[in-house]
From TrEMBL:
GO CC entries: cytoplasm
Pathway participation: Cofactor biosynthesis; (R)-pantothenate biosynthesis; (R)-pantoate from 3-methyl-2-oxobutanoate: step 1/2; Cofactor biosynthesis; coenzyme A biosynthesis
Family in the record: Belongs to the PanB family.
Swiss-Prot/TrEMBL GO biological process terms: coenzyme A biosynthetic process; methylation; pantothenate biosynthetic process
Gene responsible for this protein: panB
Keywords: Coenzyme A biosynthesis, Cytoplasm, Magnesium, Metal-binding, Methyltransferase, Transferase
Name recorded for this polypeptide: 3-methyl-2-oxobutanoate hydroxymethyltransferase
Entry function: Catalyzes the reversible reaction in which hydroxymethyl group from 5,10-methylenetetrahydrofolate is transferred onto alpha-ketoisovalerate to form ketopantoate.
Listed cofactors: Mg(2+)
Cofactor binding description: Binds 1 Mg(2+) ion per subunit.
Quaternary structure and partners: Homodecamer; pentamer of dimers.
């Protein structure tokens, strides 16, 4: 599924698979496995940069990670996740930041945590040739406003507001919509109401696709959200390898003869 156009046209067909990646080797594994969309999420802040939230992540950090992911990706659509306050403040600046992801970092599209403030911007970016993935439900860049990472759309009026915003972003030209941490029945109804595909995380089984943070999926994260499933135990594998290295150096087993080269042409220096 190589283009944004294919993703847009995929609603209701085979489930769309999306995972995050933030570096070249991970992107190459994810791409080789046939994942449709690679998201260079601002979750890099938690997953890789040691922050408690995504708020400190910069445009330069996302651009650098996106460029690395793009270099290692042959098939998947690469989407750059725009960081907190890099969009939605001033239009010219928003366009410049989003444009960098395509011009400098070879992304295929950007993702914006969406709200009333991103409807016009989504239309403007789309007009300019910058495809936009929208994102509703839990938008972690609003953590201070929300007071925590709570499920969203849990009462009738909030669910209706979410559906209205979803329609407005579809009309503005968004090619797909992430729904994060919303009740499965709400995600299902939003999915039914839209022509563009929905991609869920903590949103039940009825969205057109699923996304997870790759570190959660492979079992590398120290903590994962309750809706994530761990499909491997890479952290245990890394711990084994690192402990093995320490043991081998301390015991003198590493480096062995096969790791060393003796230069016969150099005589003893003393
Ligand atoms: O940053 C991220 O990883 C995301 C996904 C969870 C959708 O926004
Ligand atoms: Na994000």
């Amino acid at each position: 599924m190589p283009t944004v156009r294919d993703v847009r046209g995929n609603a209701g067909d085979e489930p769309i698979t999306m995972l995050t990646a933030y570096d070249a080797p991970t992107a190459s594994v994810v791409d080789d496995a046939g994942v449709d969309v690679i998201l260079v999420g601002d979750s890099v802040g938690n997953a890789k940069l040691g922050y408690d939230t995504t708020l400190p992540v910069t445009v330069d950090e996302i651009a650098s990670a996106t460029a690395a992911v793009s270099r290692a990706t042959e098939d998947a659509v690469v989407v750059a996740d725009m960081p907190f306050l890099s969009f939605g403040v001033e239009e010219g600046e928003s366009i410049e930041h989003c444009g960098r992801m395509l011009k400098e970092a070879d992304a295929d599209a950007v993702k914006l945590e969406s709200g009333p403030h991103t409807v016009e911007l989504t239309e403007r970016l789309t007009d300019l040739g910058i495809p936009v993935m929208a994102h509703l439900g839990l938008t972690p860049q609003h953590v201070n406003q929300l007071g925590g990472y709570f499920r969203q759309g849990t009462d009738q009026s909030a669910a209706e507001r979410m559906l209205d915003l979803a329609r407005e972003h579809e009309d503005a030209g968004a090619f797909s919509l992430v729904l994060e941490h919303v009740p499965a029945n709400v995600a299902s109804d939003v999915t039914d109401a839209l022509d563009i595909p929905t991609i869920g995380i903590g949103a039940g089984p009825d969205t057109d696709g699923q996304v997870l943070v790759v570190d959660d999926a492979i079992g590398l994260s120290e903590r994962s959200p309750p809706f994530a499933e761990q499909f491997g135990d890479v952290r245990a594998e890394m711990e084994n390898a690192v402990e093995g290295y320490v043991d081998a150096v301390e015991s003198g087993e590493f480096p062995a003869e096969e790791h060393s080269h003796v230069e016969e042409d150099v005589d003893s220096l003393y």
